[in-house]
Write a structure and sequence with these properties.
Layout lengths: L3 E4 L6 H10 L2 E4 L1 H19 L24 H12 L3 E4 L2 H16 L7 H12 L3 E2 L2 E3 L8 H11 L4 E3 L5 E3 H7 L11 H6 L3 H31 L9 H5 L4 H14 L3 H5 L12 H4 L1 H23 L7 E3 L2 E3 L7 H29 L22 H17 L21 H32 L7 H12 L12 H12 L2 H10 L4
Parallel strand pairs: 1-2
Antiparallel strand pairs: 3-5, 4-6, 6-7, 8-9
Helix pairs in contact: 1-4, 1-9, 3-6, 4-5, 4-9, 9-11, 9-14, 9-15, 9-17, 11-14, 14-15, 15-16, 15-17, 16-17, 17-18, 17-19, 18-20
């Protein structure tokens, strides 16, 4: 049975966004939302009938707002707005992003501050439920006046125009997809076209998806770090709670606690804990893992706070407030754009320290007795030499993606919209960064697992041993002569992306922080 998400006057959660975007949850408008929609529509109808021009209802838009539009041309005004703003270009945006965008626009409509009719909102919910996904393109949004072009492509589908992907993924005309689902295209009336396209929903949807993915990846990065500390004969003493408490960052404490739990009962760690060990300090990439991972975690939770505020917002211009309609600037994407850029920065840095831990395994001068490149027969075999090249290439790309989009602004609409957020661009590059971090951490896990095998007969901890078994059973064999490496990397990437690495650990030691 498909999950269900009820869109009502209250805010959605990140998990609800993920449920609709990725899991195909059925979407239903709640009773309070229907009441709020009807109430706001009645206000718009009164203002539309009045002789005084009201922006968004009886005027043009943007730099053309000075023109008063007569009553008999207002339906055409709404159609023209949507058609002209559906000006995206480039590759198709991912289905999950478009579904998240549609859901969040519906959430704003449900607040009763936009003035669309209940039946228009209901059609948007029905598209989500029937798996009809409008084609949205990579380029077109400046992240101010919201994600205009992406949302316009979705509004176009409500009108029965443009192209969509049906539930099976086939590209079909919107009119055909609606007819096949028993749905009737909407005839937009005053204010509705503008209300359907004027929001931060695309960038916010991508932020919600990234928060969900990065929370998992931060725990996975702790698993990878623990495996690297163990495989490189590092100490777990530096992760002790009393040492972390004297610098009380919550993310750092959580990451260090994870490392302590992951390394508990490790025969490898115990083997060099005694007085004969002449190691004074581990390298920064091992010793400072909680500080880097923890700083990233705290930044992620700040982003989640911003996302929560935005999920509770009604983003439109103008908005219905009481019995009046007012212009505002709440569509500006700056708050969302900033945290999207913040997350790209910490994503790059977590990947950077992961790559450094991996590289230490491969250098015989630093890996404490392991074969060069963890190769079966060094010289004949190259081992995991080029896996680190792959990591390095990704990390270099992530550093470029960490360059903030939100510091840029290009004026538009004849200088009426003279400062924009570029939040959509920030969100697009963050999606690529999250994918890159997934791959970098997967290669560290794969490398550390081989090193732990090579430490035999010393036994790894119960938690890290579970990860090694998962890889060996999941298409990532252990040490041996060189073989085609790319399929093994991809298998490990999927184990990280799916959460399987974290899941097997938590089956052994309980839930990670």
């Amino acid at each position: 049975m498909s999950p269900e998400v009820v869109v009502d006057v209250g805010p959605l959660s990140v998990s609800e966004v993920v449920s609709v975007a990725r899991d195909g949850a059925v979407v239903r408008l709640g009773p309070d939302a229907l009441v709020a929609l009807a109430r706001a529509r009645s206000v718009v109808d009164v203002l539309a009938a009045a002789p005084t021009p009201v922006y968004g209802i009886s005027t043009g838009f943007g730099a053309l707002a000075t023109r008063h539009i007569p009553t008999d041309m207002r339906a055409q005004l709404q159609r023209s707005l949507v058609r002209s703003h559906a000006a995206g270009s480039g590759p198709e945006v991912e289905r999950e992003v478009v579904r998240a965008l549609m859901l969040l626009r519906l959430s704003t409509l449900a607040t009763g501050h936009t003035g669309v009719r209940p039946e228009t909102a209901q059609l948007l919910a029905s598209l989500l439920t029937h798996g009809i996904t409008p084609v949205v393109h990579e380029y077109g949004s400046l992240g101010c006046s919201g994600d205009l072009a992406p949302l316009a492509h979705c509004a176009l589908a409500l009108m029965g125009e443009g192209s969509v992907r049906d539930a099976s993924g086939e590209l079909v005309p919107a009119a055909d997809a609606l007819a096949a689902a028993g749905l009737t295209p909407v005839e937009l009336v005053a204010k509705e076209g503008l209300a359907l396209i004027n929001g931060t929903d695309g960038m916010l949807g991508m932020l919600a998806l990234a928060i969900h993915d990065l929370r998992l990846l931060m725990r996975t990065a702790d698993v990878a770090a623990a495996m690297s500390v163990e495989g490189q004969l590092g100490t777990d003493r530096v992760f002790a709670a009393d040492l972390q408490a004297i610098r009380p960052h919550p993310g750092q404490a959580a990451s260090a606690a994870n490392l302590v739990a992951l390394l508990a009962d490790s025969g490898i760690v115990a083997s060099h804990r005694g007085p004969d060990c002449n190691r004074v300090q581990d390298a920064y990439s091992l010793r400072c893992s909680p500080q880097v991972h923890g700083g990233a975690r705290d930044t992620l939770e700040h982003a989640a706070v911003v996302a929560g505020r935005e999920l509770a917002s009604a983003v439109d211009n103008p908005v219905v407030v009481g019995d009046r309609v007012e212009s505002n600037g709440n569509f500006h994407g700056a708050p969302v754009a900033y945290v999207l850029d913040f997350l790209a920065i910490v994503t790059a840095d977590v990947a950077s320290i992961s790559e450094r831990r991996t590289d230490r395994f491969l250098d015989k001068a630093r890996n404490h007795g392991l074969p060069p490149f963890l190769a079966h027969d060094p010289g004949v075999d190259s081992g995991l030499m080029i896996a680190q090249y792959t990591q390095a290439a990704i990390v270099s790309e992530l550093k470029r993606l960490a360059n903030p989009a939100s510091v840029d602004s290009i004026p538009s609409s004849a200088m009426q919209e003279d400062h924009v957020s570029m939040g959509w661009s920030a969100a697009r590059k963050l999606r690529r960064a999250v994918d890159g971090l997934t791959r970098v951490v997967a290669i560290e896990v794969m490398t550390a697992a081989r090193a732990l095998d090579l430490r035999a007969p010393l036994a790894a901890s119960p938690a890290t041993s579970a990860v090694v078994r998962l890889l060996r059973e999941g298409g990532v064999p252990g040490p041996g002569p060189d073989r085609h490496l790319s399929p093994e990397i991809e298998a490990c990437v999927e184990l990280v992306r799916s959460g399987a690495v974290v899941h097997v650990v938590e089956e052994v030691i309980g839930e990670l922080q």
